[in-house]
Amino acid sequence: MAIQTRYAGDATGINNVDAKYDGTLATIIATGLTKNPTALKITGFGTFSATESGTGGPVEAILRSIAIDSTIVMYQVDTTQVSVLVEATGATTAQIQTRLQTLNGGAVGNIGLAANIYSGPGVACVSTGGFKLA
User: Fold this and answer.
1) Is residue 15 part of a domain?
2) pLDDT tens digit string along 81-95?
3) Does the pLDDT value for residue 132 go beyond 80?
4) Which of 113, 108, 3 is nearest to 49 (CA)?
5) Beta strands in 61-116, from DSSP E residues, in sequence order
6) In angstroms, what CA-CA distances link 67 with 9, 26, 33, 72, 83?
7) Domain for residue 12, yes or no?
8) Tally of structural domains, the chain
9) Domain CATH code at residue 59
10) Residue 3, Cα to own-chain centre: how many angstroms?
């Protein structure tokens, strides 16, 4: 009877699952996603209320703008910040920021920004903070 040694893979890290992928501690480990995720922190739009997260509101306009070339996995709206986790993005964070800075009612269908929500150079989109849970 022959002896056969079975191997189930190699020692190389899996792209979006292994913390050693890029050698840093702050790597997002995404076992349920197929691509490396990116966490976006969006600030500078003003103050959000619960009603602005509804259908046709400014939060939808922001998400539609991001979804042009990104796959949104989840998002959270706070009073002054929108946090978005995207699975894949075809744009850099700077390109998304530029798009958000020029957002208005005509930029994304007929969805407009509320009176207390504005766009412009004060809007910032960063992805260097990682993904932090409360």
Assistant:
1) no
2) 999 999 888 899 999
3) no
4) 113
5) 70-77, 81-89
6) 35, 25, 17, 6, 14
7) no
8) 1
9) 3.30.70
10) 50
Distance, in Å, from the CA atom of 34 to the CA atom of 127, rounded to the nearest integer, reads 19
| Both tokens assigned to 41 | 């922190």
- State how far the Cα of 123 lies from the Cα of 98, in Å rounded to an integer: 9
Q: Tell me how far apart the alpha carbons of residues 20 and 15 are, in angstroms, rounded to a whole number.
A: 9
Please name the amino acid found at residue 17.
Answer: V
Q: Which structure tokens are listed for 14?
A: 């899996």
How confident is the model at residue 39, as a pLDDT?
A: 92
Question: Identity (one letter) of the amino acid at 72?
Answer: I
When pLDDT is averaged across residues 109-122 and rounded to a whole number, the result is 67
Parent domain of 84: 38-126
**The token pair that represents 131 in the structure block:** 């993904």
- Is the pLDDT higher at 118 or at 90? 90
Cβ burial of 45 (10 Å; 0-12, 13-18, 19+) is: buried
Segment 87-112 mean pLDDT: 76
